Structures are given as C-alpha cells and as structure tokens.
Amino acid sequence: MPPKGSKPRISSSPSQHKVAYSGFVFPGTGELIINKSEVFNHETVIASLREFLRKVYLPENRKVALIRDNAPWHKKVFRRIETEDQPEYADIREKLTLIRLPPYSPDLNPIEQCWRVTRREVAHNRYFSDLQTMERALDKYFKEFKLPNEKLRSLCTFFHK
Description:
This protein is of the alpha+beta class. Helices cover 39% and strands 14% of the residues.
C-alpha cells in the first residue's frame, strides 16, 4: 500500500493506439456534437468541421461562431480557410465565423470545459483494459449531452451572461 499522501497510481495497458474526439458545444444550451477519428491532423479537422455543419441546422444567411484554439492542426486548417481563402473550403467559410483565442487561454474555449469534466468523471484514475472499453465509456458519456442540458450549459455560463 502506498504511503499516506502519495499520488495514486492506476495501471494502464501499454498501447500506442489512440482515438481522437473533436467536440463542439453550444454554450447557451449545453448541446454537444462529437466526431471521432483515428488521429488529429488538418484533414480530420476539416472533415470534423464539415460533419458538424451537416449536423447543425442553420437558417439561410446565418453563421455559427466557432472558437478555435492554437493547436498546430487547427492553425493549418484555419490558415487555409481564412487567410489563403482556398476555394475548396468555401462551404465552411460561408457557414462559420472563426474566432481565434489568444495563446495559452484554453479556459476561454467552451469545449475545454467539456473535456475537463469528461476527464474527471470518466477517465481520471480509472483503468481501461483496452481502447475499445475506454471508447465505449466515453461514447456513453457524450451521448448524455446530445440534447440541451444544464450541466454543460452551466460550465460555459461566462459566455452568455
């Protein structure tokens, strides 16, 4: 038994396998949209943005304001969409307004609030025998937030006061 006051240690299966979740949360309602891929790179981010736009209803001539952070794969995607104005991304440009966060400010990004509580409630200090078991636990958890809900809405209250 470890000494009192020491950090707990949770075993894990050694693995290089990963799953990447992209998430979009609506601060006013708490609705969560999740997309899953094998890796994070600019191609999967573009695919995730397009999947998000397919899932969300937008009246004609309306846009969604999307807060982005400064992850390298996000920078490349948004440079191509915003700065380089590449025509293959016109579908994204016409439906999204991209808001860039200042460096080192993840607390301002609503989805980071979701990731924080997900780690605490699903993954922190828990052993998963394999990646599929962990994915099932995460997918089940995320499913709870597909509809408007107070839990995620309250995490993002500083955005709509």
